[in-house]
Design goal:
It contains 18 helices and 21 strands. It is of the alpha/beta class and 596 residues long. α8 runs parallel beside α9. The termini are far apart.
Length: 596
Amino acid sequence: MARKHIEFMDTSFRDGFQSVFGSRVATKDFLAPLEAAVDAGTTYFEAGGGARFQSLFFYCNESAFDMMDAFRKTVGPEANLQTLARGINVVALSQQPRDMIDLHAKMFKKHGITTIRNFDALNDLRNLKYSGECISNHGLHHQIVIAMMDLPPGCEGAHDAEYYLKTLRNILDSDVPFDSICFKDASGTANPRKVHETIKGARKMVPEGTILHMHTHDTAGAAVSQYMGAIEGGIDRIDLSMSPVSGGTGQPDILTMWHALKGTNYTLDIDPDKIIKAEEVFAESFEDYFFPPESRMVSPLIPFSPMPGGALTSNTMMMRDTGTLHLFPQVIKEMSEVVRLGGFGTSVTPVSQFYFQQAYLNVTLGKWVKINPGYGNMVLGYFGRTPVEPDPEIIKLASEQLGKPIFKDDPLDVLEPGMPKAAEALKKNNLPETEENLFIASSCEAKGIDFLLGKAKSSIRKKTDEAEKEAPTSLKLAAPSVSGPRDYTITVDGRAYQVQVNAGGTAAVANNSEKTPVSAPIALQTSGIDIPAPTPGNIVRLEVEVGDTITKEQTLLVMEAMKMEHSIRASEDGVITELFVSGNDQVEDALLTLRG
């Protein structure tokens, strides 16, 4: 009997980069191994999208469109190039309006992409309908996704084979256009038996000839077993990677899977010697890159607190930058409860980030003292319907803290067109109004504008980079009296400033000559109320200038943390008299303490 040929997509140059390097890879560094992979016979590559779109502008000082053009030129006209889109978020951190969703498909088609894999973390079909229509209308192959994971112990009601097959039935019964179906397990936690039952059931449901594809990560150590279960259940394609970005937080290695299929009725149909040669070129090209040790490891705790491989290193990179990496084990452990109470959205961007950020707050501030805005909006329904109803007490807390009611409508219907705002931003900065620039301005916001203005900086971790890391910026504010003058101590880059705010919000500032450690608390005599920033992170942009009159709850600055943006708001009325931070500063912690 002839062995069945299992097709695969090489994810090395997109998910491999995201899972190991937090997406921070320069195009010039991967073209040689990409060419070697083509020489080895690979014709199907993941070429961008997901976090690898924004990361080029944010951290590599490159255009993602230029990267995709170089990718296509290297592999030739016949290769299948695939990117990843997050439903109505497409490749942005926030939800995008209809005109930008359509522009996303148009621009990716223009820059050499063949296929777009399209997922929604909540498996809410409404979030896939319009984006899927745009992908198909622009002549791209639309691969629609069913997002998978295992639930923490004691949880039930979703994420079993019955739930996935029901989700598939909803897709088949809808009018959403698609060309193939992917079962995507970003955390690698779906147990192999469930995977087998799901794929076996799906094969019976879909029309003959429908391509079924599976994606997973090796973070929990179960990826090869998952793929074996999927293959025996009738899968057509799987995702694999090449060393040194395979295994651990990435996908299983091509050679590992080839080995696992020995003696079975299935084959990858590769020349292993050619793949070995390509992997040697890959290793040589990246020998100067910093490999986070956690990206190379298998974690037995991941099934209990599903953290996607593609997000894990992005989070740990950020925690390294802000000096909080020691909290990572506690945060991962806390994720179990956050998932259990949050409605079972699949742990994949952006929901995985909501889970992680909420777990971080629970660890640093106390359980449920503060609701992360992303997590809160999710449980309230602003990202779509969660697979099950979130915990009523968590919904109540989110509604109270965010000042929002429960939302049950289509998230797309409340978004204003993005083209006018993007065009205004380009005009304000004297930038040409091309379709690429419009999409960059909308999806990357201020950082996209900075890139177009030539203000972006490269932040790629390499072993030989001897540049001394900038000290994190921290803000610690304290006032001795609620009425009358209030004295603040602000610590920025290790230097303390004394600030006195008088009635009406005017301020005087004095510089302390003696530097104090960023992590050292300011000694105070009285107790107070602490109001922290959502997480450590980077300042994306300032929303105020010196001389501005501000009101309570007005946004002062926007931080990026763990691939999401957060607004830091004023706690009271006042006037801005001095600014001690700027865009791209790293913030270890932001703490306002009112004394009285």
